[in-house]
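[SOLVED] Predicted holo structure with S-adenosylmethionine

Edit: marking solved, answer below. Original request kept for reference. I posted the sequence and ligand SMILES and asked for the 3D complex as structure tokens.
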Amino acid sequence: MSHPQINDTDHAIPTDISTEIFISNWMIYRKIIENNNMSHREGYDKLRDILIKEMRRPFSFVDLACGDAYYSSKVLQQTRATEYIGIDVSEQALTLARKEFAGTDIEARFERADFINFERITPAPVDVIWIGFSLHHLDTPDKLQFMHKAKKALSSDGILIIYEPILLEGEDRSMYFKRFKQTFDTHWRGLTKEEGESLLEHVRESEKPETAKGWIKLGKDAGFSVAEEVFSEKTGLYELFKFK
Ligand SMILES: C[S@@+](CC[C@H](N)C(=O)[O-])C[C@H]1O[C@@H](n2cnc3c(N)ncnc32)[C@H](O)[C@@H]1O
């Protein structure tokens, strides 16, 4: 039975607009999860389906920018995962994540670190690398560098799976933000006015989505032979991609 610990590694923790909301007030994001504003439920259902179908042996799972692992902990208990490593910068989120895994049969470990340095923390090879709603904080060349690292870290049948915001063809970041705001105004539930404003500022200042073709190209350029879109959620803001 797992009794997970949080380790504070000494790698530099980015504390800027991309992480501030998660470090200072995790409960804003927790409300977003609970209200399913970003289709966590459907995306994580898809993740579970992929893992059940494609990982038919005991496997290790690295959850980059894991947050509170609310959904990943539940999904993994329905799969053959035996080992879990969660990396995040938010102490509040990691404390909750640790509780989600306590008492499960999955050997879980948590590191407070910048996920970009994951290869210094995780043993190689790993079987699954999952990153939900976080890779888009990087600039395009850094996303590619990350993809190369992920390819190198994976076992021969390993999978990288990402669930990320997408730009529509011809859209730039300011057009994306307008589309996001329309969805936010129409469909999002559960945040106070102040919480909503701080979330909108985070999205406007730090989200750097790619087009679906762009995400796939990054995977191909990093050497993955399978790079495909496997799920598109109902608002059209987020898509799930698989790389092997
Ligand atoms: C939108 S949340 C996503 C959480 C979770 N993956 C999910 O699917 O709900 C973004 C997460 O990324 C973390 N984060 C942002 N930048 C990070 C970085 N450079 N290194 C590690 N964690 C980071 C935040 O603390 C937060 O938990």
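OP edit: The domain at 6-16+40-165+210-243 is CATH 3.40.50.150 (Rossmann fold). Thanks to everyone who chimed in.
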